[in-house]
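U., I forgot to send this yesterday:
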Amino acid sequence: MKTEVSTKYGIVIDSGSSGSRIQIYKWEDPAALKASQDSKLLKSPPKIVQERDWTLKTTPGISTFNTPAKVSKIWSDHYSKLIEFAQGIIPASQHGDTPIFILSTAGMRLLSPDKQTAILKETCAVIRQNTNFYLPNCGDYIQIIDGKTEGMYGWLGLNYLMGQFDEYDLSAEKHESIGFMDMGGASSQIAFVPSSKEELEKHNEDLSLVTLRNINGDTQKWNVFVETWLGFGANEARNRFLKSLISLASYENDNAKDINDPCLPKGASFEYTYMDKKYNIKGLGNYEMCLKNTYPLLMKNIPCESEPCLFNGVHGPKMNFDADKFVGISEYWYTANDIFQSGGEYNYHKFNEKVKEYCESDWSQILENSKEGKYSGLDPNTFLRDACFKANWVLNVLHEGFELPRLGLEVPDNGATPDDVLNEHVPFKSTDSVNGEELSWTLGKILLFASSQIDAEGSSGDSLEVGIFPSEISGKPFIPGGGSLKNYSSDDDSDNEGNSSSFGILSVLLFFILLLALYQLRSINWDKYNYKFKRLTAPVRNFAFAVGSRIPIVDKFAHKYEEINLQNDVNINLEEGLMSSLSTSPKLQQTSVLRTRLNINLNDGDGDSEYLQLPPIPRSFSSLNTPNGFTNFNKPFVVPKRNASFYHSENTSRESFRKS
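Result:
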């Protein structure tokens, strides 16, 4: 008799800067699969499935709902369309067991905290009001994620689709994985597991621990390095480059209006506004100059805390490209595939030759080629105009930033030509899908949730919670895979806990302010009674400051208040001859015999340094079909046995993706 297996569903909405895209997934109930005799199934995490049309996008980005009037329309003008789409797919009887995650990225990160809070709060309220989907608390399910978390989810999604989590062997000393690279418009991310045991040990504090649960209850453990660079995405890098050209031209001539750009094809020009001034950017079409002049944008001159150093002062484990394998998405794919038809296995000779040819082409010829459909139908005034720069930026990031060896330069090419199929050293490939499935970081998030619903009952005996444990040096809290459905109740809401906590903090704050107000009443007393009043209230004030010091905002206010009043305290004690109570200060000890009120400032140069701290310097700046996959690695880079090839995608260009 065949056991009936129930289906579970999950929703992740990626709320980015240009819009929100809903992704709907399903998987078989792990509890119903534990009796299976399939050892491969049991030693793997849940199998996540996404049907062909289970995704939908709406525009504009949620960050545009940043005024009170717009916030009130978040449901009607934004999320209602996506939720109705999901409700039409997921059976109504399972809505209560279907988790919904709404995770915002770059656009929301740029808003002020109060605007972020207003949007997130309204989002949670309208989802609860208009749906029955599983949303136990707003804090974990509706949030803004940082670049590192986004990169980690991407690494999870990639390695899941490539089958790296299947048949996890607890006894194996090493588990192979694939590195993840992502370059968006504003930022770039990388996430990988160092292949070297020495690097793993050496950089232990730099690595995050990612845990997954197999169907049999065993816990998978992966030590992953993840980093993000804000301002190093293709669009932001382009802006930085143009600003640097303008600054250099203005250094010689304040009235310079025409700016020569080596990364712009000859004959092309456009207007660019910087610091309220308009400049005419004119193309030189010089490939060599473009490549050299974009290198400084990596900011390799910024020192790292320790070697090895990647770029912009970011330290990380050494990448061994003889063993480490990487996949790049987003701009790594769009630039190579849409313009140069060089997506897939990375061939430096072939890509470099095509980039050089394009950059040195006349703009009129590029426009003619575009009309003939050569460049995937991309808009000439945006994508084609910036393609030379973006290609050179990708080259610099890969080879100078991450130090990917160039065939024929850092490693011998053995006489290979640009048209050869290179099988000797292919450590990097670009793609937008795996086996016909879209490669999205949202898959990594739902994989963690599905995995977290399995109890730790395997032979590992490890009850470690499923999720992401950030590196020691990051100082960030644990990112849970998800909560337990069976333990959920409508009263279990972190928002209520937050309100209680806020009420407690507010009570202490009010109490503290009241004490300070009472202390200020000393000003109506005679001077000779002032110090008596201070001494009488000292125990209460000390207690209030001790409690307040545990609350950052109160602590900062309290310390500043004490600094302002230190002079008065000193004067009172000087007048009354009570300097022995301030024996911890050598300067004050020298004046302890004085009984005359002195008009001096004993804080001169010393006191300020305790309270005026400079902020820390930020570490980051404010379709080819090749069914064999990667070849000649330690382990052949072969995709799992599925119908579609690794590179097959229904959306092969950014233009088609953007229109969806």
